[in-house]
Design brief:
The complex is a heterodimer. Chain A is α+β, with helices and mostly antiparallel strands. Chain A is built from six helices and ten strands; from the N terminus they run βαββαββαββααβαββ. Chain A is globular, with a radius of gyration of 16 Å. Chain B contains eleven helices and one strand; from the N terminus they run βααααααααααα. Classes of the chains: A alpha+beta, B mainly alpha. Chains A and B meet through strand 2, helix 2, helix 3 and strand 6 of A and strand 1 and helix 3 of B.
Chain lengths: ~180, ~325
């Protein structure tokens, strides 16, 4: 069984938002909405400051509360890989999944269904990287299978320090930020 | 100092979640009110009070039927992908309280119908004689009437609990994520229903009984709210921050003044004086209780959406 994940090197990310633009173009994301975004966190007082830049999106959690909350089964895990997807034909737009997501990764598409990052599943099926990963000019983003010991993601997580977002929320997120 | 900036600006998500508007609080209120009305009318059937000619248990089911239908209409208004609403009834998702709720709402209707059939109006009976026959047969079996009362109480209880569990199951919203919310909404629903029946009851003894029981519900509600805050204030930082939204944050004024003051404490004082015959019963107290119940749902839903796990907690 594959388990897809992403490792993002915060030491290489410059926050250029190429990933955001690539996602919008690849997935026809409506104007004013975002499936991925850049967060910048600055701490401290000059000259003792620390800045972290994060390219964020749905964390494709292994224990996704959005999937649990969905009353119609529209939110589901795509197998193989455990990618969290929304079946537009099953979504009634009740927004329970949006309230259930601690990351604010979901939104209501102007056509009525709930939308979010899909890890570019259509590209993954063709053994391509998600659009955001493929365009990153600093190569800070890595996509791979956690069950494959040869994947870049596994090797990076074995050799580098990392953190996930809100692990205390208990969702087992699959986006890792290398620090 | 920590500075946080993001390029995300998704409508209704940023800067704070506000996807559920007025429809959901009103639906939750009506669900709770109907749950309380089912429990009260069920109790009247069970206890034999239905034998009194002007028992409210004869018209409460009809009102419950209308009010729960109105609530479901509000729920429908809230859906963004309305043409797929039928999908709710093509599956049962065991982990989703909303899926449970959809099926519970279907269960409510036949139970209410059974209650409604116990007494049908003469005009209706003349138009549909077979319904009159069914009603007469039902009325000749007292054990059946008692059982309909028990089922109404049970289903009403489940409906009232569900309105709280729907929110409390969403762990991403710390204010909702308390295991006592079902009790708060159930007791508030009972209190609202007692106030509603107090307003419309034709039987004086019934009015007195409901005013007394409403006092009990209001006191329990205050106690449950206190327990809820104790639980949250001794929980994680996210839960503490969520509790503070109501205690001293942006929702404090509406919570303290409208929910606690006007919705619970003042009607409680008025009704305590009324049941001890120091003042006359007036519609003021029950109206305040009902308004307080509506505002409680608005405050809990809106403040709950506002509450969130703080990203800065994990930042190192």
């Amino acid at each position: 069984m594959a388990r897809y994940a992403m490792a993002i090197d915060t030491r290489k990310c410059v926050g250029c938002a190429d990933c955001v633009a690539a996602c919008e173009a690849e997935n026809d994301v409506p104007y004013g909405y975002a499936r991925d975004w850049i967060v910048q966190i600055a701490e401290g007082k000059f000259p003792n400051t620390h800045v972290e830049i994060l390219s964020e999106r749905c964390n494709h959690c292994s224990e996704a509360p959005c999937v649990d909350a969905c009353p119609t089964g529209a939110s589901h895990y795509y197998e193989p890989g455990g990618i969290v997807l929304v079946d537009h034909e099953k979504c009634i737009g009740c927004k329970a999944c949006i309230a259930a997501c601690p990351y604010g990764a979901r939104f209501v598409h102007p056509e009525g269904y709930v939308d979010k990052c899909t890890f570019c599943v259509h590209r993954v099926k063709e053994e391509l990287d998600p659009a955001c990963v493929s365009v990153c000019p600093t190569h800070c983003m890595h996509f791979g299978d956690l069950d494959d010991p040869e994947s870049d993601v596994v090797k990076l997580l074995q050799t580098r320090k990392y953190h996930a977002l809100l692990p205390e929320a208990g969702t087992k997120p699959n986006l890792y930020y290398l620090i | 100092m920590i500075e946080f900036s993001t390029t995300r600006h998704n409508p209704l998500i940023d800067p704070f979640l506000h996807t559920w508007s007025w429809q959901i609080p009103l639906y939750l209120f009506l669900g709770g009110l109907v749950a309380g009305m089912m429990i009260i009318s069920g109790y009247f059937l069970f206890s034999g009070r239905y034998k009194e000619t002007n028992c409210s248990c004869y018209y409460l089911p009809r009102m419950s039927f209308l009010l729960i239908s109105l609530g479901m209409l509000f729920l429908f208004f809230d859906l963004e992908h309305k043409q797929f609403v039928w999908r709710l009834y093509t599956t049962f998702q065991i982990t989703s309280p909303m899926s449970w709720g959809a099926w519970i709402l279907l269960l409510v209707y036949p139970v209410l119908l059974a209650n409604m059939l116990l007494r049908i109006s003469e005009k209706f009976g003349e138009k549909y004689p077979f319904l009159k026959n069914i009603s007469e047969k039902m009325n000749s079996h007292h054990i059946l009437i008692r059982n309909i009362g028990v089922i109404n109480m049970l289903v009403g209880g489940v409906l009232g609990m569900y309105t709280g569990i729907l929110l409390s199951s969403l762990g991403a919203r710390p204010l909702w994520n308390t295991s006592i919310l079902w009790l708060l909404f159930l007791v508030s629903g009972l209190s609202g229903a007692a106030a509603f029946v107090h307003l419309i009851a034709k039987n004086v003894h019934e009015r007195e009984l409901l005013a007394k029981s409403d006092n009990g519900f209001l006191i329990i509600e205050l106690f449950v709210i206190a327990m809820m805050f104790i639980g949250m204030l001794t929980n994680s930082r996210a839960h503490k921050e969520a509790a503070m939204l109501l205690l001293s944050g942006p929702f404090a004024a509406s919570f303290w003044v409208l929910v606690i003051g006007l919705g619970i404490v003042i009607p409680l004082i008025l009704q305590l004086l009324a049941v001890s015959h120091k003042i006359h019963h007036t519609p003021v107290a029950p109206i305040l209780v009902i308004i307080g119940g509506i505002i409680l749902r608005f405050v809990i839903v809106y403040a709950g959406e506002f509450s969130h796990w703080s990203r800065l907690i994990t930042f190192k």
